[in-house]
Write a structure and sequence with these properties.
The chain has 394 residues and is of the alpha/beta class. The chain contains 13 helices and 14 strands. The strands form 3 sheets. Strands 1, 2, 3, 4, 5, 6 and 7 form a 7-stranded mixed sheet that branches. Strands 11-10-14-12-13 form a 5-stranded mixed sheet.
Amino acid sequence: MSNQIGIIGKPNVGKSTLFSALTENIVGIGNYPFTTIQSNIGVAYVRVKCPHIEIGKSCNPKFGKCENGIRYVPVQIIDVAGLVPDAHLGKGLGNKFLDDLRKAEGFIQVVDSTGSLDRQGNFVGFGKFDPMDDYEFVHKEIVMWIAGIIGDNIQKGLRKIESEGGKVEELIHQKVAGLGIDEKTTAMAVKNAGIPSNLKNWTDEDTMRIAEELIKYSKPSMIVGTKADQLSPEQLNILKSRGIFLVSGDYELALKKASKTGLIKYNPGDNDFTIIDETKLNNQQRDALEKIRKFMKMNGGTGVQQALEHMVYDVLNYIVVYPVEDESHWTDKSGNILPDAILMKKGSTALDLAYKIHTDLGENFIRAINGRTKRILGKEYVLNNGDIIKIVAH
């Protein structure tokens, strides 16, 4: 599984609670800074309508699951230690934190929607801090991290370009390739940032501009405000208007636990739940569920599943494609129906899909076949969400 999303933010903002709510992995959760020391890695799922309903036969997912015509496609989530000011210089657990994020394709940046924590994650009182301040300083640390990688010994590289020829974007890409940033993205970032006509005039500001552009295109992010169940309706609306996606990880965890024990019927992402048997609930449970329901009505759900799907489909711009080996029956060679559901970037081609499945398929690509229309497709065919594709190779 190559699709990885990082959960980042300052200490104690609720990153691990959100991680647990998404993945159902129980990790250390505490009301104090640096509860997370080692990064937590787990799997969450995004929903999509499964094509198997078109043929009236059940699919056989290798990964994830399919329930009532809804396919749950896996995404890897990494929750890292909290980030404090000057983390890029090694403060707190900064160096390890940043290194763990190298493979992440984008960031869910968690802020404390109650504004109760200082930059080190210590409680200072409700509403004392602006949640957007959390975003700004953490974003700056990420940019400084990338700038540090670019700037390391860059003057030597620039002098070599001046004396021997070459391109600045090639030099930059050599430095950031380990972050999973491709040549095309690097070239775009360098172009948008602009560089001095005379490389001898290169400054730290040039490095910072390129780092900003690289983050924008290679590791996009969204802002998620945790602990939203503690807010009033007015506060919810104000923060939403500022572009913060509001969630309650605690409520999502409670609903998943109640669902597993058979007290309620709840699917992640639903904006309500159904109590299966009122007689099985004690007064405390009944009151707690009513409190959760009230919040869900205000927020359109707990927000947890919705946040993940917004990140995957809207921020990272993924679509879901189903590769098969038999285009007539939509199966693999063992007869499994729609065994794989793969996340691909919008704009990806049939050739991109072939390489995603296996390098040999990409290198030996002959053609693709549309499983619905049976049309022959060339390598430049642009994939659509829900496509069922067979790759033919030498």
